[in-house]
């Protein structure tokens, strides 16, 4: 009777890590690497993958290697505190970081609130969202590809976004990634204009209440955002500074209305149900690549170097005589490249017109 060949010994950790590294561009590998290698390879094909988790994780820990953050704003309401920072990378548009702390809010409800496109439109706390639809979804990982159309004032065309999004969970901390993804299957149109460079991601986690009772009953949302606004960067930065708080403070009443509905037992929307399909991981079990490995960060963040070069060129060619509505309307209607947020539109107008807050 023929003797069966002896089973090969299991690979040691170093060998297993090397095998996966050849197939894993994300540089985030659980220690149970052999068992999860096939699953991770499949997940890399998703619109949002572990490379995006790594990039957000580095941003939260301020280990992404980018420039230092410049403090912009600190505002407080009775049940909310908001802080914001900005930094200017060597190439690409300005990047923004903010911390919003909501008192008496759980990370789970805040997570669902920001994912719930239906409630955004129903409640109108985000009154620029005109349309939303789900193009793709993976019920195993919670990964979605959605299409947004955002409305703009009469002198601007609406903007279209194709967004990939997914949530990871480590304990009660949620890493929520949303970013622009290419989808040639969705034809481009003259109107609405498509925004290609878009990155907006959150870390949602419980924090201690400022009531001083030691309870972890507050929730912090760390947001990292940048996109190609399609206007000169200096004008955009002025507009964001002037208009940001007016837009942000609308979020809090929207969240409180969402909490009331959930407490009353209102049905959970499809988008909110997908927010509850998270990929769990342990931060202690991540094997992080060395500082020289920047492939995952550059592929996930969408730094838009080429876009930045073009925008800077446009900025240098704009006449200095542009004023108030002329500056904003020209930026909106001439520069086709991305979202001009409400903060930029109205904040810039206030800045140039000498409205409240002008230095």
UniProtKB/TrEMBL annotation:
Compartment(s): Nucleus
InterPro entries in alphabetical order: START-like_dom_sf, START_lipid-bd_dom, START_lipid_transfer
PANTHER family for this protein: PHOSPHATIDYLCHOLINE TRANSFER PROTEIN (PTHR19308:SF39)
Natural source organism: Zea mays (Maize)
Molecular function as annotated in GO: lipid binding
Transmembrane segments: none
The START domain, residue ranges: 57-260
GO CC, alphabetical: cytoplasm; nucleus
Gene behind this protein: LOC100281983
Name of the protein in question: START domain-containing protein
Gene3D superfamilies assigned: 3.30.530.20
